Amino acid sequence: MSWDFILPVCLGDLVKSGAVNQYVVQDVLSVKQLPSHINTALRSQGPLCILEYFDTAYSVLQHCRTVDVAVKEDTLELLIQGYILNISLCLSQGRKKDKVAGKGLLQWDSERETILQCLTQLLQLDIRTLWSLSLVEEEFVSCVTCCCYKLLENPTISHVKSKSTRDAIIHVLGIMVKKYNHMLGACVKVIQLLQHFEQLASVCAAAVASWSSEYGVKAIVGEIMREIGQKSSEELAREGSGVKAFSSFLSELSTLVPETMIPNISVLLTHLEGESPSLRVAVCEVLGEVLVRVLSGDKLDDSARASRDRFLDTLQEHIHDAHSHVRARVLQVYARIVNSKALPLCKYTEVMELTVGRLGDKSVHVCKSAIQLLAAFIAHNPYSCKLSSVDLTKPLEKEMAKLKEMRDSQKEQVPVAVITAADLWDAMKPELEMTVKAQLEPGSEEEDNEDEEETGGDEERSDRDTALQIAQFLRESPEQVTPEAVSSDAPPTPQKEGGGNEGGESELKKQEMLVQYLKDTESFALQVERSIAVINNMLYWKTTTVVQEAVQFCVTAFEFSVANSVCGVRKMLPLVWSTDVTIKDSVIQAYRRLYLNPHGDNTRAKAQTLVDNLSDLMIDASLGTVQCLEEIVSEFFSSESALQTSVVQVLWERFSGKRETKALHRRAAVLLLGMAARAEREVVLSNLDTLCSVALGEKVAEDYLLARDTLITIANITDHVRVCVHILCMNCQFGVITIYAKQVCICLIKMQQKQLYLNCVSLAQVLSLCGAVAFWQVSHLERSVSAELRRRRGEKEEKEEKEKDANDSCVEEELGLVGASAEDTEVEFIRKICETELLSGNMLSAFLPLLVKVCSSPGKYSHSQLTTAACLALSQYMMISPAVCKDNIRLLFTVLEKSPLPVVRANTIVALGDLTVRFPNILEPWTPNLYARLSDESASVRLTAIMVLTQLVLKDVMKVKGQVSEVAVLLLDPEPHIASLALNFFNELSAKDNAIYNLLPDIISRLSDPERGMKEEDFNTIMKQLFSYITKERQTESLVEKLCQRFRTAKTEQQWADLAVSLSLLSVCERGFKKLQECWDCYSDKLTEPGVYQPLLSIAAKLRRRAKPQFKAHVEDYEKRLTAVHTKGLENVDNEEREQQMGDTQSQNLQTPRKSRSRPKPAITFSSDEEEEDDAVMAESETPKVTTPIARTRRTRLRH
C-alpha cells in the first residue's frame, strides 16, 4: 500500500490523520524502549531502516529533552545517512556518501555545517519529481528557509568563527531564491530580520550581494531598496533600532554591489528629506560609493555624467544638513571621493568653499572631518605641487597679457580675397529664377480658379510655402549653390591662407585653456590659504583628535608650499611640551617628517637639506620657538642616526664661513650647534677654539648678534666646563649672561663709561649693561655659589661622618636638624651678601642714583631707548635686596601707569612679575595695580599682563581675588590671541578646587557695576563661559542662594537684570529650585522688571520640560506666581493671598512661607562690596605697608 507523506508544520502533525492515505506515526515508543529499537534497526538494515522504523526516529524527537545523549547521536547519524541515501535512490543518482561520525552534541557547529552542506547538495539536485506535477510545495520551501533564517538569528552568527556556517546558510538561501521562487519571501524576511536584529545588517548585506552577483538575482536588490524607500517617517520613528539596521545595511550593500543599486537609487532619495539622520547618512554613503566605483572617470556617457552631477549636487546640499553627524559624514564621503580622484574639476571650487565654511561649525566632529577633507584636497589637487598664490600671480598676469595680444592680433588680420554676397547672388540669380518658375508652374486652370477665390490670408500662406520650397531646393542642390550665398549677413571669409587661420584659432584656444587653468589654480590656492588661518587656531583646542588633524593639515600644506603654511608649523611647535602624549608625539613626528627626514641622493645632500630646513625655521623665530625647537633637535642628536656626523660638519662649515652663507644662516648654525651640544657636548667642545676665534675674535664688531648667539651656545656647556675667552669687547649685556667674572664686568662698565656723555644711546647701553651685571651677579650667587657651598658642605659632612661615631649624631639626624640648619645658614649668608656687599661702595652702587634719576624724570630724559633701558635696569637692581625693592617700588609702579611707551609698560609688568616671585610680601599690596594693566589701551601691554598674571596665579604665587573680573573682560578682547589666553586662564583655573565657584559672585558684582558700563550682550557672553565651569549640583545650589541674596544690595535695574541672567545660566536642579523658592523675598519685588521676570521664567520652563509629574506641579505653581507678580504687582498678589488664607484656613499652599514685609530687613554686607568702596590705586602720598585683610560676614566654601 502506498502512503502520501505530507510535510508537517509542527511535530504533532505526524500523529494526526488528516486525509486518506496520509502517513501518520502509529506507535510512539517510550524512553526505555528507544536504545534497543535503534540498535536493532541499525544492525538489521543500516540507513535504509528509516523507511520502516520512522516511528522510532519520531519517538526520539518526541522525547528529545529526556532521552540519553548517545541515543541522540545515533539518531542523528541515522538521519544524515538515510536522508542522503534515500533521496539519491529515489532520484536514481547512485550518490555515495562517506559515513559521518558523530562528535557529540557539544560540537553542534561542525554538525550544523555538515547538515547545511548536505542540504545545499540536495537542493542543487532536480527534486521536482518528488512532488506531483513537478511543483515543489511551498511548505517545503518554508521549512528549509525558516530553519536558515532561524539560524541567522543566532547572536554569534556575525562573528568571525561562524563565517563558514554563515556562508553555508547564504548559499542555501541563494539556491532557494534562484530555483524555488523564494525572492519575495526573502525580501520580506530580510526586512524583518533588520527590524528585529540590528547586528544582522552586515550579514544581510553580504547575503543580498551574494544572491545578486553569484546567483544572478539582481532584482532582489531593487525589491529590498523599494521596501526601505517606501517606509514613511512615522514607521521609521516606530522602528527604533531598525532604522540603524537599515542604514548599516544600505551602507554595507553599497560597498559590495554599487552598480546594482543605481537603477533603484531614486527610491532612497526621499529619505534625504526625512527626519532620520542615520538614514540620511546611509543614502549619502550610497551616493559616495556609486560615485567612486561606478560614476568615475572620463569615459562616461551623457546619462552617466548627468547622474554623477545630480548625485554630487545632492551631497553638496547636505554639507549644511541640520544634523551634525550628517554634515560630518558627508564631508568624509567627499574626502573618499577626492582621495579616489573621482571629483570632477568643475566641482573643486564649490566644494572647497563649502568645506572652508565648515571649519567654523559648532560640532567638533564636523570640524575634524572638514580638516581631513581639506588635507585630501591639497594632497590630491590636480593643479600643482606648489600652491602659493604669490608665485602664481606673475605667471597668470603674463599669460593673460599674452592672450590679450593674441586676440588683438586676430582681430587685426585682413582677409586677402573676399567674394561678397551680392556678387554671389548676381551669379546664381538667372538659374534660380528658372528653377523657381519650373517648380511653381500651375498644373491646371481649375487650380488657378481656386487660387483666385482664396483670401488675402491664403496669399500670405502661399508666399511662405514658396519660401519653404526655395529653401528645400537649396538644400537639395548643394552642388549648384555655394554655402556662402545662403545668408547675405554672413561675415566675409578669406579665400586664401585658410590653413594659417585655423592654426591661429587652435593656438588661441590653447592659450585660453592655459589662462583658465592658472585662474583655477590661483583660486584653489587662495581657498587653502584662507583655511590655514582658521586651522592654525585649532592647534590649541581641547579636543585631541582635532589637534592631531590640524597638525597633519599643517604638514600637508607645508609640503605643498602653501603661502603662510610655515606659520602653522611654527605655531604647533610649543605643543612639544603638551601633557597629552598623543599630541606631543604627533608634533614630534610632524617635525621629523618635515625637517629631520630629508630627501637626497647621498648623505651629504640629505644633511645639507636638513640644515637648510632648520635654518629657515630659526630665522625670525621667537625665544619660545627656539626653546621648543631645541627640544626636538636635542632628541634628534640623542638618537642614533647616520646623518648626525654630516649634519654637524655642515653646521661648522656654515658657521666658520668656508661656504658663502648669509649672516642669518650663520647665526642659525651656531644656535643649532648649541642645541646639539645639549645631547652631545663634544660637538662644541671639540671645536671650542674655532667657535671663539670666529665669533669673538677680531671681526666681532662685524656681527654682534653672531657673538651673542655664540655665547648662548657656550652657555649650554659651561655648567661643568670652565671656558676662557681672551677677547671680549662687546657693548651689550649678553656677554655677562654667559661668562661671569668681576674684573671683566668692571672692564666693560669702564669701557662704556668713557662714551657716557656722547649720546643717549650710549647712556642706554651702559645702564642696560649695569642692570645685566647686577642681575647676573645675584644669579651667580644663588646658583653657582650656593651649589658650591652645598658641595663643600657635603664633602665636610662625609668627612665628619667617618671621624665621628654614628651614635653621637643619630638624634640630630633623626630630627633632620643638621641639614636644615646648615642650609638655612647658607641661604642667610647669600642674602646678607646681596643686601650689604653688592650695592655698597662699588661701581654698581654708583649707577643706582642715575637710574632713579632717569626713571623719575621722563620729561628731562625723554629718549625712548634710554627710558626703556633705565626702567629695565632699575627692576634688575631691585632684585638684589628687599631694601632696594621697597625704596623704588612706588617709582616702578608710577612708570607702569604713566609711561607713554607701551614697551616700557610691558617690560615693567614682566619685571614686576619676577619681583612678585622674589619678594611676594612687598608686592602683595600692589596687586590691584597689576590687574589694572589688563585694561591698558595697548594690545601688547594687555598681552604681557595676561601672560604674567596667568603664571603668577596658576603657580599660586599670587592669591586669586575679585580682580580676576578684569581677566574675564579679556574674553571679549578684539585681539584673538589675547582672548584665547584669557580663555586658557579660566580653563586652567577651573582645574583648581572650587576656584571659579568662589570667585563668581564677586566677578558678577564687579562686571555689573554701573560705573563700568558693560553692555548687556558682553556680560551675557562672559557669564555663559564662566558658568560652564560649574558642574556640581551642590555648587549650583549654593550659587543660587548667593546670587539671590545679591538682589538685596543691587541698586539699579541693570544689576537686577544681570543677576537674573546669571541665575538663568545655571543648570538648576530640583534642590536648586527649592533654594530659589526659599529666596523669594530677595527678588519678588523686582519681578515687575522684564529683565528680571524673563530669565526667571526661562528657568521654570527648563525645569518643567524635564521634571517628574509630582515636581512639575510645583514648577507650574511657581510660574503662575511669577506671572501674577509681574502683571499685578507684589502688593496686590500678597493682599489676594492674605484674603484667601483668612477665608479658607484649611487650604495649604506649596509656596515657601515668607516673612512679613513690615519687618525691617537685616543689612547684609559682602566682601566684594567693601572692597569696591576703597580705591585700588593709592594716592601719591601713601604707600601700602601691610596686606589689607579680607573680612566676610558669611562665606561658605565647598571642600570636595
From TrEMBL:
Keywords of the record, alphabetical order, are: Cell cycle, Cell division, Chromosome, Cytoplasm, DNA condensation, Mitosis, Nucleus, Phosphoprotein
Report domain Condensin complex subunit 1 N-terminal positions. Answer: 93-186
Q: A GO molecular-function term, please?
A: histone binding
Query: Condensin complex subunit 1 C-terminal domain: which residues?
Result: 903-1063
Please provide the Gene Ontology terms (biological process) for this protein.
Answer: cell division; meiotic chromosome condensation; mitotic chromosome condensation
- Which spans does this entry mark as compositional bias, Acidic residues? 443-457, 1168-1177
> What's the chief localization of this chain?
nucleus
Spell out the subcellular localization from the entry.
Answer: Chromosome; Cytoplasm; Nucleus
List the residue ranges of the region (Disordered): 439-465, 477-507, 1126-1200
Its GO CC terms? condensed chromosome, centromeric region; condensin complex; cytoplasm; nucleus
Question: Compositional bias (Polar residues) at which positions?
Answer: 1142-1153
Under the heading InterPro entries, the entry gives:
ARM-like, ARM-type_fold, CND1/NCAPD3, Cnd1_C, Condensin_cplx_su1, Condensin_cplx_su1_N
Q: What does this protein do?
A: Regulatory subunit of the condensin complex, a complex required for conversion of interphase chromatin into mitotic-like condense chromosomes. The condensin complex probably introduces positive supercoils into relaxed DNA in the presence of type I topoisomerases and converts nicked DNA into positive knotted forms in the presence of type II topoisomerases.
What the entry lists under PANTHER family is as follows: CONDENSIN, CONDENSIN COMPLEX SUBUNIT 1
Family, similarity comment: Belongs to the CND1 (condensin subunit 1) family.
Tell me what this protein is called: Condensin complex subunit 1
UniProt organism field: Cyprinus carpio (Common carp)
